[in-house]
Amino acid sequence: MNTTRNNDFTSIITGRRSIRKYDTSVKISKEEMTEILTEATLAPSSVNMQPWRFLIIESQEAKAKLATIAKFNQLQVETSAAMIAVFGDLNNFDYAEEIYGTAVERGLMPAEVKERQLTSLGAHFAKLPADVNRETVLIDAGLVSMQLMLAARAHGYDTNAIGGFEKDQIAELFDMDKERYIPVMLISIGKAVEEGYASVRLPVDTVAQWK
Amino acid sequence: MNTTRNNDFTSIITGRRSIRKYDTSVKISKEEMTEILTEATLAPSSVNMQPWRFLIIESQEAKAKLATIAKFNQLQVETSAAMIAVFGDLNNFDYAEEIYGTAVERGLMPAEVKERQLTSLGAHFAKLPADVNRETVLIDAGLVSMQLMLAARAHGYDTNAIGGFEKDQIAELFDMDKERYIPVMLISIGKAVEEGYASVRLPVDTVAQWK
After folding, report:
1. What span, in angstroms and rounded, lies between the C-alpha atoms of A24 and A29?
2. CA A108 to each of CA A6, A101, A114, B13: distance values in angstroms, whole numbers, following the listed order
3. How do beta strands A208-210 and B82-89 pair?
4. pLDDT tens digit string along A176-202?
5. Does A201 touch chain B (CB under 8 A)?
6. Counting C-beta atoms within 10 Å of the first and last residue's C-beta, which end of chain A has fewer, N or C?
7. Can you give the pLDDT at residue B1?
8. What domains does chain A contain, in order, with CATH numbers?
9. Given pLDDT bands bounded at 50, 70 and 90, which one contains residue A2?
10. Nearest CA in chain A to B45
11. What is the pLDDT of residues A93-131, one digit of tens each?
12. Structural element, H or E, at residue A57
């Protein structure tokens, strides 16, 4: 099943608005949310470690918990089809064997290349400073979050990226190891019932220089 | 002028590969690069501060400088139409007056809302811990980088997101204040002359949980 309803890239990026209020009667099936996440996670990441992790918060009970740490964003929590909590996994190298092993199984990588790369990556991660790992994970989580918001629009939904919540509390609230999983953002998703505001961007000449 | 050549969202995201080798005869005009950056910077950011900054490194001289700090990625530096260095601006609040003032000028925001928001944001940024500012900037820079790579594909180009370079040296090398501008990634861009490798993604059930 492919439920994509809008495939027009220009309209997807130019029509995206931060939407706070959603149609409460619209839910997103696990099947469709899985498609959206499958599209989102086609994003690239540092040495393909895919350090992003997601909680799809959609039950009344889980939303009520989230509401306690997202006080300025109650409207999104209450009306969205789901709130997606995006985390970065600091232990992302734990999945290296699975990722590279699958590449070999699928004939995408010779076994000897996998062994060589895993040895080299193992050495890299063993001496990777914690702050560099953390920053890489945040950047990669930013990449996937953008693609997630665009994939949502391709499926006919809108989103709001939210940084304003109690980041220090979210992992424990959902029984995750807070030393391992670092909070990145919340993304509300659902069917918009407002137009959202157009917002201003700085001119390209202000943010870019040619060399 | 609109030079967009591919508007098919599905093909843009599913066909994206990390490309290392480009057609050296293909350059990207400043006009078209400006369009790509205009599309990229439609990405959202925390309180719309747009903390992303870009160096478009395309001259032989600037590329030769960059090559000294990107030793494992010489092929991209040599063959790309340009290397885009993405930075985060830790002083992004300096642009608040310009961003919100323009919104008022364009009739997108009443003047009193602007004043109220700038007062509130001023108080927020004044007490924002440096590490929180830094992490927010990295996440926002991740968002814009993803949209940049997709916009590039809409214009018929391919990219490679590169984290492996001497991040501690890039600002000074290009005469930027390294205390203010933090390096995020390099993005090579150009016309691909190789297919690139398909790569494996972890199953959604491994990276997501429903609550």
Report:
1. 14
2. 31, 10, 10, 19
3. unpaired
4. 999 999 999 999 999 999 999 999 999
5. yes
6. N
7. 46
8. 18-90+134-193 (3.40.109.10)
9. low
10. A161
11. 999 999 999 999 999 999 999 999 999 999 999 999 999
12. strand A52-57
CA distance B193 to B180: 37
Structure tokens at A192: 């918009």
CB contact under 8 A, B144 and A146: yes
List all residues of chain A from 30 to 59 with a beta carbon under 8 Å from chain B: 30, 33-34, 37-39, 41-44, 46, 48, 50, 52-59
Q: What pLDDT, in 10s, does the model give residues B134-180?
A: 999 999 999 999 999 999 999 999 999 999 999 999 999 999 999 99
Handedness of CA A27, A30, A36, A41 (dihedral sign): positive
- CA nearest to B93, candidates B139, B49, B46: B49
Which residues are CB-neighbours of A150 under 8 A, at least 6 positions away? A12, A13, A16, B9, B13, B147, B150
Give, as one character, the DSSP assignment of residue B193: S
- Find residues 139-168 of chain B whose CB sits inside 8 Å of chain A: 139-147, 149-151, 154, 161, 163
**pLDDT score of A5 more than 90:** no
Break chain A down into helix, strand, coil percent, rounded to 5.
50, 15, 35
Best probe of the A interface among B8, B92, B146, by most A CBs < 10 A, is: B146
